[in-house]
Write a structure and sequence with these properties.
- About 35% of the residues lie in helices and about 20% in strands.
- It is an alpha+beta fold.
- It has a single domain, classed as Glutaredoxin.
- The strands form two sheets. A four-stranded mixed β-sheet has the order 2-1-5-6. A two-stranded antiparallel sheet has the order 3-4.
- Strand 3 and strand 4 (about 65) form a beta hairpin.
- The longest helix has 14 residues, at about 90-105.
- The mean pLDDT is about 80.
């Protein structure tokens, strides 16, 4: 999960015009503590009842848990990309995520 934080500036364009929401079955207090302690610049949401996991096909019936879900909300406020599950230890997952964000966010022409 540190890759979220470590790749934030490059992959997520520093959050410019996109919001990243990571959803897991962890309880909200644990997620809040973890995000604060590690200084994660993304939103985490708790799905302890697996409603999101079931709705988006990320519920694992064998283990009765959600796989980790990752949603990118585009500039229009709609879900523009979803990874269910998100493979946080697979480097290609970040390549795919970066490609999806690049389609949503035009290049920053003000940076030199």
């Amino acid at each position: 999960m540190n890759a979220y934080r470590d790749q934030y500036a490059q992959t997520f364009k520093n959050g410019r015009n996109v919001v990243l929401i990571a959803i897991s079955a962890d309880v909200d207090t644990a997620l809040a503590s973890w995000a604060r302690d590690a200084d994660y610049p993304v939103l985490f949401a708790s799905d302890t009842g697996s409603a999101v996991g079931k709705a988006y096909g990320a519920y694992n019936a064998q283990y009765k848990l959600d796989n980790r879900n990752l949603f990118v909300v585009g500039p229009d406020g709609k879900i523009a990309y979803r990874a269910t599950p998100f493979r946080e230890i697979d480097p290609t997952a970040y390549t795919e995520l970066g490609s999806a964000i690049n389609k949503l966010v035009p290049p920053d022409t003000t940076a030199h």
